[in-house]
Design brief:
CATH architecture of the largest domain: 3-Layer(aba) Sandwich
Radius of gyration: 20 Å
Shape: globular
Oligomer: single chain
CATH superfamily of the largest domain: NAD(P)-binding Rossmann-like Domain
Distance between the termini: 62 Å
CATH topology of the largest domain: Rossmann fold
CATH class of the largest domain: Alpha Beta
Length: about 325
């Protein structure tokens, strides 16, 4: 049992990490921004965790929250599409926030172990290379998000703290989210790997019991080929839309751009941490089930829903004109 601080504790992955820490008997301190969404998720753990609300950009607050912790699981970050829309906020949170956390951790009498959540986006544009990507492959800075994640990895490596870095595959929100134009900026041919956030959380928490990993290891963590999680963007998008009753959208609505996703070599991380449980089809079914009664009216409103989503595509609008 360890005292564990989780930053971004009520985010897409952090929520599952918090639940898994409790299941494995750890003492959990949660740190996150206070919003209606995070308050709702925090309410799922009444009296079970210590909650500290605040902004990771506040160094004095960060100094207080790291006190007495054995392990820091740093998950808080600005991710796409917000990182594209607000680059300065992204740098402030992802770089300066990480620096605040590292400095506070190093100042402790007994410095904690430090986990850093990174991304497979760092491998850059690799569709012309044979998959899978491996930990030793070179990185490519392709946007503000990868700029900040590369900087974060480097700061963690130079911190002198016992640390562990995961580069995660895509972990879709297990929920109903609004459509966003970014969905059309990925070529349908792109390889991508997905994973249930509960499986990513299990990998993180299982690592606490392996002190030999906290020596600067970099592990790739994804859903795995055996679980049908190594797919193309066409498969990803069409299966989710079909399961929700919307149906696949025309190819002409999508860019033909190469995107920064690929399949990962997760053999080592799975051997060490035994976290891969959900298939991609299970992920899809879980998301679709959240529609509830709305799935019964989808056949009647499908054309209107499709039209509304297609209107977000600059490529579809160009075709129509």
């Amino acid at each position: 049992m360890a005292n564990v601080l989780v930053t971004g504790a009520f985010g897409n992955v952090g929520y599952y990490v918090t639940a898994e820490l409790l299941r494995q008997g750890h003492v959990v301190r949660c740190f996150d921004l206070r919003t209606p969404q995070t308050e709702k998720k925090a309410a799922h753990f009444p009296g079970l965790v210590e909650v500290a609300w605040g902004d990771i950009r506040n160094p004095e607050l960060v100094k207080r929250i790291v006190q007495g912790q054995d392990v820091i699981l740093h998950l808080a970050a600005i991710i796409p599409p917000v990182s594209d829309e607000q680059p300065e906020l992204t740098r402030a949170v992802n770089i300066e926030g990480t620096r605040n956390l590292l400095e506070a951790a190093k100042a402790q009498k007994n410095p904690p172990r430090f986990f850093y959540a990174s991304t497979f986006d760092l491998f850059g544009h690799t569709q012309k290379l044979p998959p899978p990507r491996r930990a030793e492959d070179p990185i490519e800075i392709s946007d503000v998000y990868t700029e900040t994640k590369a900087a974060g990895e480097q700061m963690v490596r130079e911190s002198g703290l016992p640390h562990l870095i995961f580069r995660f595959s895509d972990m879709p929100l297990i929920g109903l989210r609004d459509a966003h134009p970014i969905m059309f900026e990925i070529g349908l041919y792109n390889r991508m790997e997905t994973m249930h956030p509960a499986d990513g959380a299990l990998a993180v928490v299982n690592a606490i019991a392996h002190p030999e990993l906290w020596t600067g290891r970099l592990l790739l963590v994804g859903g795995g080929r055996e679980h049908g999680c190594q797919i193309t963007y066409r498969e990803f998008f069409s299966k989710i839309l079909t399961a929700m009753g919307i149906g696949m959208l025309p190819d002409e609505a999508f860019s033909d751009k190469e995107y920064v996703t690929d399949w990962l070599d997760t053999e080592e991380s799975q051997r060490l941490l035994q976290y891969q449980r959900h298939t991609f089809d299970q992920i899809v079914a879980e998301i679709a089930a959240l529609l509830g009664w709305k799935r019964f009216i989808m056949p009647f409103v499908r054309p209107f829903v499709q039209r509304s989503i297609l209107n977000m595509s600059p490529y579809w609008k160009q075709k129509k004109t």
